Amino acid sequence: MVAEIRAKSKALLVLRGPARAKKQKVLDRRLAELGLRPSFRGGTSIPQRERPGLRKRYDELRALLDEVRDAGKLGEETDPQYRLALLIRFPLLTEEEIEIASSHPYKRRGTTSKAAMAILARRFNTPPTTLDRYLFPR
């Protein structure tokens, strides 16, 4: 198996243009069959069936973080009892996610995108650049 992958990857070094792209796809497909997913520019690949729900989760998380931020104006965020109250009020978030949400400063409502991206990256165990690529295709 290692010899096969090595041979296909060495063959890619001498090819250029469309022929190289075609052989690269063949190699990527073979690696996926073997359970060795190729490393993409953004990190990992999100399966096709999960992509439609990803944007919905992102929008819901941003709305939730806006509510957390609005609730944060009522108390001291460093107080442990206040953090516990936030966890009770917003049970969909963990302590670490509340910490992430409070570590990203935002000046106005709707500017929670960095915090939402950080929490989604943590939940999916995926680099934020990969999520950015799927949420905001260019």
List keywords for this structure.
66% helix; 138 residues; mainly alpha; 0% strand; 2 domains
Brief summary:
By secondary structure, the protein is mainly alpha-helical. The chain has helices at residues 2-14, 17-33, 51-72, 80-89, 95-103, 113-124, 128-135.
Written overview of the protein:
The protein is an all-alpha fold and 138 residues long. It folds into two domains: 2-33, no CATH class; 48-135, no CATH class. 66% of the residues lie in helices and 0% in strands. It contains seven helices and no strands. The chain is elongated.
How much of the polypeptide forms β-strand, as a percent range?
A: under 5%
The Rg value, from CA coordinates, equals: 21 Å
Number of strands: 0
SSE series: HHHHHHH
- Low-confidence segments: none
What form results from the Cα inertia axes?
elongated
**Number of structural units classed as domains:** 2
Classify the helix fraction into a percent range: 55-70%
Cα(first) to Cα(last) distance is 36 Å
Structural class by helix and strand composition: mainly alpha
